[in-house]
């Protein structure tokens, strides 16, 4: 048990990021799955909405629980939010492109394509958040 505590203490930020990354992915995939099953909603539109909802969820959880970023002014908060959204839009572009290629060209199952894409997105977003947005 002592070893687990030591591992947690040493890697608390990464573990927190992975935990909230999994939750963000569940939010993203749940919204996507819900909208993708509606026959009149195109999968790319469903994906765009899922990305927006998950970006908002991820900002608040990453800011408060993972990177414990405290901003003393509205300007500082808006700067973090703008940077977060900007870098998430970069990864969202990758997300949309991957979905288009995997589903549109290779005709993969949409949920499998979404899951594989999300694994890559989580890694990209950790790098962006750790080194460019919530840097201490």
UniProtKB/TrEMBL annotation:
Locations listed in the record: Membrane
Q: Does the keyword Transmembrane apply?
A: yes
| GO cellular component terms, semicolon-separated | plasma membrane
Q: Where is the signal peptide?
A: none
In which domain of life is the source organism classified? Bacteria
Q: Tell me which UniProt keywords the record has, alphabetically.
A: Membrane, Transmembrane, Transmembrane helix
Family per similarity comment: Belongs to the GtrA family.
What protein name does the entry list?
A: Putative flippase GtrA (Transmembrane translocase of bactoprenol-linked glucose)
């Amino acid at each position: 048990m002592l070893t687990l505590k030591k591992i947690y203490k040493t890697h608390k930020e990464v573990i927190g990021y992975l935990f909230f990354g999994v939750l963000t992915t569940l939010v993203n995939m749940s919204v996507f799955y819900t909208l993708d099953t509606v026959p009149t909603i195109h999968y790319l539109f469903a994906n765009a909405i899922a990305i927006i909802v998950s970006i908002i969820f991820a900002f608040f959880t990453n800011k408060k629980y993972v990177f414990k970023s405290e901003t003393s002014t509205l300007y500082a908060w808006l700067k973090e939010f703008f940077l977060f959204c900007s870098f998430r839009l970069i990864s969202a572009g990758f997300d949309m492109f991957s979905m288009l290629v995997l589903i549109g060209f290779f005709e993969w199952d949409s949920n499998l394509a979404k899951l594989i894409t999300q694994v890559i997105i989580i890694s990209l977003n950790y790098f962006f958040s750790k080194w460019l947005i919530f840097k201490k």
